[in-house]
Amino acid sequence: MVDSTMQYPGIREVKYTRHAQLLGTGEGMPEKIVTNQDIIDQFNLIASDRAVQYSIGIKERRAVQTGVLPSEYLYKAVLQCCSNANIAPEKIDRIIYAKLVGDQLIPATSLRVLEKIGVRKGVPVMDISVACSGFLHATDLALSCIDTGDDYVLVLGGDRASLDSNAEILKDTRTIFLNGDGFAAALYGYSQTPKFICKYFYTDSSIGEFAYIPFGTEFLKEKEKLLTGAFNLTMPDGPKIHQSILDSFQIISSQLLGASGMHWDDIDFIITSDQTSMAWKAQLQQAGIPEYKSCSCFHKYGNTVAAMVPLNLHEAIISGKLQKGMMVMMMGHGAGASGGGFIFRF
């Protein structure tokens, strides 16, 4: 956080010899819409739709169909992404999936996506888990892979983040309205000219307990039965998380602007994680950026964790708000206690 005693790393110069560019995006959203009133009625909560919209800015979110795995929705996102980029899936050299949980721990969910695409040429795939900033970390890996020889790298983000009404898991009324299920894809490819100007990433261990899912080896060694909260995303202190988002926005943006020699007036569009509508607006207000120069899907999708940034990116492109040639600052930060981003020309 801004007022912590932590020493944040300095920004490093981008030294790509094979450049990359964003070629296309896609989304694989579940069809089922869950309203605030649906949740209020389901869990018999003392709340109102109007109060929920006022407090966090959400109207509805999506929920995966019972029995359908994340890889199915990711596959839909991949097909749309490849179609928008006009690149056949068979040309993909690598897949990197930023997840929350995925289909299962092993094998990688990205392997399941590869199976559905039908590619049989031994394409390397991997899953990573850095929560809200996962898509940015995966993009960083993708750019490095293109620098070392890959021509097309597919980056996926998103997972099942909402509550399953049929699952016997702990319901936290402080966060029950926040999350939604969402899946997105972005395809990066080789570029003869530089597109990505600079990048910056950091981790803040001082906020490691702000949000967490307890399941892991530390949990298992207690020799207890799997409790109902083992896989539940817990966020004990909402105001602190909100402030950490603003702090992260300031840290990342100042590093990127400083390294590029740019000012806010040089940035045409902002893509950022939007844990709530209020968090999205507060980030823009902090930098004096008008809302038309950014995009938020929180009101209709909720907090989709690793899908937040790519869904906002996709929405900006298909809505026409983000045009070719624009200079973009794209960043993500949150529960992974990590943040990062880029400045690039679309």
Throw out a few tags for this protein.
single chain, alpha/beta, 10 helices, 31% helix, globular
Element-by-element helix/strand order: EEHHEHEHEHEEEHHEHHHEE
* Alpha plus pi helix count: 10
Structural class: alpha/beta
Largest sheet: 5 strands, mixed
Helix content, binned percent: 25-40%
Mean pLDDT: 88
What Rg, in angstroms, do the CA atoms define?
19 Å
The shape is globular
The total beta strand count reads 11
Task: Give unreliable regions as ranges.
Answer: none
Cross-sheet strand order for the largest sheet: 1-7-6-4-5
Strand content: 15-25%
Give the quaternary arrangement of the chains: single chain
Distance between the termini: 30 Å
Topology, pairings included?
Blueprint: E1 19-27, E2 32-35, H1 36-42, H2 49-56, E3 60-63, H3 70-85, E4 94-98, H4 109-117, E5 125-128, H5 134-147, E6 152-159, E7 182-191, E8 196-203, H6 217-220, H7 238-260, E9 269-271, H8 277-287, H9 298-301, H10 308-318, E10 327-333, E11 338-345
